[in-house]
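Hey team,

Filing this mostly as a record. A colleague (T.K.) asked me to run one chain through the structure pipeline before their review meeting, and I want the input and output archived in the tracker in case anyone asks later how it was produced. No errors, nothing strange. Just documentation.

Input sequence:
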Amino acid sequence: MTVLRTARLELLPITLPMVEAVLLGRREAAEDLALARMPDPWPNRELIEQAFAVSLQDIRSHPSARLWGARMMVLGASGAERRVIGSVVFRGEPGDDGVAEIAYGVEASSQGHGYATEAVGACVAWALGEPLVRAVQAATFGWHRASVRVLEKVGMIPSGNRHHETMGEMLVFERRRSDL
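Output structure:
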């Protein structure tokens, strides 16, 4: 998988060794793999478990399928200190229907600077260029205005609702490949 670059970010593929280093608490190894400093409070086990809704064993069994499209957001030009500020992940490879579901997160001190919009936009464009992808979807809560705005800014439109087992109704947004 290729590295994606935006005006301010490098979007590095998340690899099995990176996931293992983070989940096993090997911060120095994770920073070596990312060639960037990890934020102190992030990533933490809760965020990783939300991003990767499968076990480490399942990721190890099917790394290319489970880590399909997953990338770390790295901020910092050459010569400046590079730091991981977030991630953009897909919920695995697209399904038989050609839908790839995206999720993302930015660590607290880097929120509000447009990094999520920049990274999500690049990852959605990448995914829609992949042959098996017909559409990219994302789900968020209607009260999460910042997340809704990110999805709107990258050209995703409301396409339905989904029920979250503990938190209620979620809005589903979608962007389809233009050549369909």
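Quick notes for T.K.: DSSP finds seven helices and eight strands in the chain. The first helix runs from residue 16 to 23.
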